[in-house]
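Retry 2 of 3 after timeout on previous attempt. Resubmitting structure tokens to design endpoint.
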């Protein structure tokens, strides 16, 4: 029996903005980060992400320095505030409706993102997604480190992580509907049975037109 599953990218797909960037600026506003060079370097590396050339392990090794030595419990407190004050106002209303429609039809909803999992899971819970997959970071001495634990859910890694999840759930025949904004997700697009782009970047929009994928524009 075929199991239909709705899989969503997170940043710029379900929310207006990139949660990693928004998180960095939240930490800056709270003066947890106080070095302007950190913000500048973060912006430089995110530009590499948008260009499809980011070295994800290097980026995470850099960005996670902001939380070095901070207990995970404290990070969790900040995350609750961050999601409530910054993320929730930036969730596309159409995204909420789309997820609710799938849930009403008893179709599992997965959010899969190249953002660290402790952020992804918080947001996914607010959206009532059934499962969330992000990049897992090793925890050392009760603090998040800059070392990736397992396979990073980035580019082809998203396909690997989703395949792992399907195996764990004992789903042998899945029909995947995938939503994304980014050409970084082309491996997932080609893996999926149906692709729907949301506010697609130029490269993805061009390929979507060639492949005759549905293209949507969502706004706040």
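Retry 2 succeeded. Sequence:
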């Amino acid at each position: 029996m075929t199991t239909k599953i709705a899989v969503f990218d997170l940043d710029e797909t379900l929310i207006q903005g990139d949660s990693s960037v928004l998180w960095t600026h939240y930490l800056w506003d709270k003066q947890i980060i106080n070095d302007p060079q950190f913000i500048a370097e973060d912006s430089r590396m995110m530009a590499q992400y948008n260009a499809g050339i980011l070295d994800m392990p290097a980026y995470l090794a850099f960005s996670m320095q902001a939380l070095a030595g901070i207990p995970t419990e404290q990070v969790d407190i900040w995350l609750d505030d961050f999601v409530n004050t910054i993320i929730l106002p930036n969730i596309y209303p159409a995204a909420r409706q789309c997820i609710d429609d799938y849930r009403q039809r008893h179709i599992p909803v997965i959010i899969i993102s190249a953002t660290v999992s402790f952020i992804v899971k918080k947001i996914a819970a607010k959206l009532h997604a059934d499962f969330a997959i992000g990049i897992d970071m090793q925890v050392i001495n009760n603090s998040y480190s800059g070392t990736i634990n397992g396979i990073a859910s980035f580019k082809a890694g998203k396909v690997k992580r989703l395949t792992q999840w399907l195996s764990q759930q004992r789903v042998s025949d899945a029909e995947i509907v995938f939503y994304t904004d980014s050409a970084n997700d082309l491996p997932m697009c080609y893996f999926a049975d149906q692709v729907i782009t949301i506010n697609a970047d130029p490269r993805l929009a061009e390929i979507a037109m060639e492949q005759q994928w549905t293209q949507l524009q969502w706004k706040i």
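Attempt log closed. The mean pLDDT is 96.
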